């Protein structure tokens, strides 16, 4: 009987140890799944971060490309005078009268916050103002002709009033802007 009790105790102990082992294995599997889920979450966050870095690098490259393109854009004093000569010749062809041409050599570009970093774009703009007298439709054709050409001048404002000396005419007060990039 002594052997039989030992045998049952041994079987009960082995069964108990197997149950503890199975329970421990299941607990470890749950922990492994939790760690795998955590690792997958971290990997997806890292992938998102890598995509964000790639997007930032692409935006930075676009900025540099645009900045380099701006460096080729600009107007010199001679080119500005040439543009004014073109305006005068187009006005003469259309029998329009130009008066009071004013070139403002100051930079009229709004002041941007100076603390934006080392990649500040030094963009300037100068304004050219003049009064154009003639027929309303002819002035419209003049504006179309100037904008159709390869002019670096961009129209900023245009206001019309009646010409007191010519009952059929109008006066157009025009302002054009020329942008320039300084290194």
Protein described:
The protein has 3 helices and 4 strands, in the order H-H-E-E-H-E-E. The radius of gyration is 39 Å and the shape is rod-shaped. The N and C termini lie far apart (104 Å). The protein has 2 domains: 1-72; 77-181, Alpha-Beta Plaits, CATH 3.30.70. It is 55% helix and 23% strand. With 183 residues, it is α+β, with helices and mostly antiparallel strands.
Helix and strand arrangement:
Elements: H1 2-71, H2 77-93, E1 97-104, E2 123-134, H3 136-148, E3 153-162, E4 170-181
Antiparallel strand pairs: 1-2, 2-4, 3-4
Summarize the structure.
With about 180 residues, the protein is α+β, with helices and mostly antiparallel strands. Helices cover about 55% and strands about 25% of the residues. The chain has helices at about 1-70, 75-95, 135-150, and strands at about 95-105, 125-135, 155-160, 170-180.
What is the chain-wise order of helices and strands?
HHEEHEE
- Biggest β-sheet: count, sense, barrel? 4 strands, antiparallel
Number of helices: 3
- How many DSSP-defined strands? 4
Give the CATH level 1 class of the largest domain.
Answer: Alpha Beta
| Helix amount | 40-55%
Keywords, separated by commas or semicolons:
single chain, 183 residues, alpha+beta, Alpha-Beta Plaits, 2 domains, 4-stranded antiparallel beta sheet, 3 helices
């Amino acid at each position: 009987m002594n052997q039989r009790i030992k045998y049952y105790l041994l079987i009960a102990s082995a069964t108990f140890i197997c149950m503890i082992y199975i329970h421990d294995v299941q607990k470890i599997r749950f922990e492994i799944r939790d760690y795998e889920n955590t690792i997958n979450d971290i990997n997806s966050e890292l992938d998102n971060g890598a995509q964000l870095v790639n997007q930032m690098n692409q935006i930075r490259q676009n900025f540099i490309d645009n900045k380099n393109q701006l460096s080729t854009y600009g107007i010199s004093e001679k080119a500005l005078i040439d543009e004014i000569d073109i305006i005068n010749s187009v006005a003469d062809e259309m029998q329009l009268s130009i008066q009071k041409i004013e070139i403002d050599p100051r930079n009229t570009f709004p002041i941007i916050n100076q603390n934006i970093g080392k990649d500040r774009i030094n963009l300037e703009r100068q304004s050219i103002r003049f009064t154009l007298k003639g027929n309303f439709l002819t002035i419209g054709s003049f504006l179309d002709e100037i904008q159709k050409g390869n002019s670096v001048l961009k129209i900023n404002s245009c206001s019309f009033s009646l010409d007191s000396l010519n009952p059929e005419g109008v006066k157009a007060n025009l302002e054009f802007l020329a942008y320039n990039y300084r290194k």
